[in-house]
Structure formats: C-alpha cells, structure tokens
Design goal:
single chain, mainly alpha, 4 domains, about 60% helix, about 0% strand
Length: about 290
C-alpha cells in the first residue's frame, strides 16, 4: 500500500489499520499540523471507548503508558505528550482537570500545548514574512532549526510541516535544489544522525529529525525518512562500532557488556563481527 493510497482513509481507519497490523506505522508527519491535538483527542477517545470499552472511572484508575503503546498509540504519547499520560488524558477528556490537579497540584502542560497557544499569536502572513526575512539573511532557504522569534516548531504546527511552510512562502520548487550533495556533506549528515542517536541512546523521532535536517537534506542524504532509520541499522562500519565500544569503555571504566550499549543495538555489533565477543576482541577489549 503506497503513501498516496493512505490519503483516502480517515484517521480512525488509519488507526485501526495500524492496530491490526495492516500498515506498520502511521504515515509520515501524521502527528504534526494545526489539528494534531484534535486528532489525538479523537483517537484516544476511540481507543478507550471503542477498542478497550473503558468508562471514565476505569480510565482514571488503570491507564498507564503501556495502555497507549499496547494499542498502537505509543508514538502519539511520546511525540505529542513526551510520555506524560495525564496530559494525554486531559487532551482527550478536559473534564478530568480537577482529578488531575488532585493527583498533582503542580501539573504543567507539556510543550505541545504551549506551542499551540504560541501559534495563535501569529498570522500566516507574519510567519511567512519571518521565513522570507530569514531567506534574505541567509541567501538560501532556511531550515527549521534556524528560525527564532518564533522557533521552528511554531511553523510546523501551523503549516503541518517545514516543507509546507516553505511552499506557503513561495520558496520551494525543488526541495533538493539548494542542497550540497558532495561526499563531504553526505558524510557530515550521516555523522550528525549517528552522533544524535548515540547520545540519545535511541532512534530519533520524526520531530527531532525535522530539527536536524530540511526535507531536501533528508531526500539528498538519506533518500527518505525511513532511509534514516535504515541507515541507523545498516550504515555503521566496523571502525565506527569499535570507536563506540572504546568510548563506552572509557565512560564506564570497564569493558562494556552488550546490555551497556543502548544504541546502536547490540545485534548490529553481533551481525557485523559475528559475535559480541569478536567485537570486543577487535576493539582490543577482550582482556
């Protein structure tokens, strides 16, 4: 099933397709755009009321992060609510506010709520003018991380993606046109994503990738968003993996075990060196 095919389905239909394994994940940028919280509200309520058939009392009593992850809304919980279950519930059921405050009088809305509020301060024309001013300043199309006052996430919240913001600003014809596709720049981009994933000890989220690369850079350096995730599985050389093992040894003060390496996953070392023991041996750490 192609990306174009998925356009014809409603949000609930897409959710059920993901839940039943018909598609592996929601479409790219599904959890982005001006109506993101509305979509989250609809699908959260559908999960509780139609899939789980829980009433409000059971929702308050039994909901955990795994409730979302087990029912294919873990990505939503992580991306939109930074795994804050109460914020996700308040988005879907505003009537739970008193209950939430009883649990935690100091409860804070997550950054997405703040972003949505900040977005309403600006008109489309003001945001577009800001992008054009940045274009004039840089003499090229800006990337999301270069925007300030407001920051880039406000533009993606308003327009759905940074790509859409550039299109609205009449700055985008070929998103690859301004991208340096030299071997040096490709290697630099690959190092950026590897270093980021190693530091976070996990795959980056789509929002984090948007902060690191423009849509054009993703297409030129990795072919697609999924290409980044493929690269973080298959793109490591033996030398890079050895450097990671040595770095981890230096940080731990001892030889790392396969459980010490959160990212890249230990299976990548085993595939590349045939075993964990061989990886340590080639890194000079087997003694």
């Amino acid at each position: 099933m192609t990306k174009d095919d998925l356009i014809n389905y409603s949000d609930i239909e897409l959710y059920n397709m993901a839940r039943l394994g018909i598609i592996g994940r929601f479409p790219n940028n599904f959890w982005g755009g001006e109506d993101t919280l509305k979509t989250a509200k609809v699908l959260t309520r559908y999960m509780f009321e139609n899939v789980l058939e829980w009433d409000l009392e059971k929702i308050k009593r039994e909901t955990k992060a795994n409730t979302f992850y087990d029912n294919k809304l873990g990505g939503m919980l992580g991306i939109l609510f930074t795994n804050n279950v109460v914020n996700a519930l308040l988005n879907a059921y505003p009537e739970l506010e008193d209950w939430a405050k009883e649990r935690n009088p100091n409860i804070q809305l997550n950054s997405l709520f703040k972003t949505q509020r900040e977005t309403t301060k600006y008109t489309d024309e003001e945001l577009i003018d800001n992008i054009k001013e940045k274009f004039t300043e840089l003499s090229r199309n800006p990337v999301m991380r270069e925007m300030d006052n407001p920051e880039g996430h406000v533009y993606t919240s308003r327009f759905g993606s940074w790509n859409n913001a550039l299109i609205a600003s009449d700055l985008l014809e070929d998103i690859r046109a301004d991208i340096d596709d030299s071997e040096e720049e490709i290697n630099k981009a690959q190092k950026i994503i590897k270093d980021f994933a190693y530091e976070k000890e996990r795959n980056p989220t789509e929002e984090e990738i948007d902060n690191l690369f423009s849509d054009g850079e993703i297409k030129v350096y990795f072919k697609s968003l999924s290409g980044i995730y493929d690269y973080l599985t298959e793109g490591y050389t033996k030398e890079e993996l050895i450097d990671i093992l040595i770095d981890k040894r230096n940080k731990l003060g001892r030889t790392p075990t396969n459980k010490d390496i959160k990212f890249p996953r230990a299976i990548i070392f085993i595939d590349k060196f045939d075993s964990w023991e061989n990886a340590l041996k080639e890194a000079g750490l087997d003694t």
